[in-house]
From TrEMBL:
Gene3D superfamilies: DnaJ domain (1.10.287.110). The lineage of its organism: Bacteria, Deltaproteobacteria, Bradymonadales, Lujinxingiaceae, Lujinxingia. This is J domain-containing protein. It comes from the Bacteria. Keywords: TPR repeat. TPR repeats lie at residues 247-280. It comes from Lujinxingia sediminis. Residues 141-216 form the J domain. Residues 223-242 are annotated as: Disordered.
Length: 293
């Protein structure tokens, strides 16, 4: 198992960093100091280093310099609480603490991706499933597209969309576009997700749903574009509650939390999003809907 250097001078913060690491993926090498650490790592299977700007011996700059000297190719994630050190010789900097998924995404972005044959088979199966969904879509109602029976109640529509968004949101697959198979996968997922958001926008809206059910009774599977004009609708998913990039990041996490049945975590991420955009009434309303009995 690859090792991961984790250097942080604060004991409680060090424990949190260790708890936020991907489970079972690395053997952490934890230290509160920076002096003399780098030479001891030479020749060991160290995949990356996580260095907090505050070390117990105030040797952050020394540790970073020695890591670059002894292990020049080692990816380094620098964590800071207030302000990132200027011109630090690191691969990436991140204000910390942040929610665990944000931290893990930052770490994963530094590491090379290795796909086993089993991984490739899973990707191939997912690609084929998405392709099949797209092929079936023209003959399906919006309800069927989301795996629901025609006439499904609103709460089931929301739950289905949250779960499907967790699986098919194109942002999850953007990072793989450089892979040989990644662009085709992304294109198919993106096309299917557009259909999902179109379906959700119609059947989750009371007025449009009524019109759509009348269309279904006439044997029509889609509303015409004029009737379902998106400009007359509100946001179609949580991440559309804001155009602020930082707020959207936490809104996407909240969407995922709701999909997996964790409203407490969703509420926390919504509050993070609101802190990035304090005047956003739509986020406030969503928080109120989760906190009102």
């Amino acid at each position: 198992m690859n090792e991961l250097l984790v250097a942080c001078g604060d004991v409680d913060l060090l424990k949190r960093i260790l708890a936020d690491l991907p489970a079972g993926r690395f053997k952490p090498v934890a230290t509160r100091k920076g002096t003399g650490i780098a030479p001891k790592l030479v020749g060991r299977p160290v995949a990356a280093a996580i260095v907090h700007a505050h070390l117990a011996d105030q040797a952050t700059a020394q540790l970073l310099s020695e890591l670059r000297s002894h292990l020049p190719e080692l990816p380094i994630l620098l964590l800071y609480q207030d302000q990132a050190p200027a011109n630090a010789p690191v691969s990436r900097s991140l204000r910390y603490p942040v929610p665990g998924p944000v931290f893990r995404n930052a770490l994963n972005a530094l590491l090379p991706r290795h796909h086993s044959q089993a991984d490739l088979e899973q990707w191939r199966a997912f690609y084929n499933e998405t392709k099949l969904r797209l092929q079936r879509a023209p003959s399906q109602s919006y309800f069927q597209l989301m795996g629901l029976n025609n006439g499904a109640p609103h709460h089931k529509i929301v739950k289905a969309f949250d779960a499907l968004s967790l699986r098919f949101h194109p942002d999850r697959y953007d990072q793989y576009k450089s892979e040989r198979w990644g662009q085709a996968l992304y294109d198919h997922v993106n096309a299917f997700y557009k259909l999902l958001t179109e379906a959700y926008a119609v059947i989750s809206d009371r007025r449009l749903r009524s019109l759509y059910e009348q269309a279904l009774a006439r044997g029509e599977l889609r509303l015409d574009s004029e009737t379902s004009n998106p400009s007359e609708r509100g946001p179609r998913s949580l991440d559309e509650l804001s155009n602020n990039p930082q707020a959207k990041r936490f809104l996407k996490l909240a969407q995922r939390d709701l999909a997996i049945g964790n409203p407490d975590a969703a509420l926390q991420n919504l509050q993070f999003a609101l802190s990035m955009e304090p005047d956003n009434k739509a986020i406030e309303q969503k928080i109120a809907s989760l906190t009102t009995p």
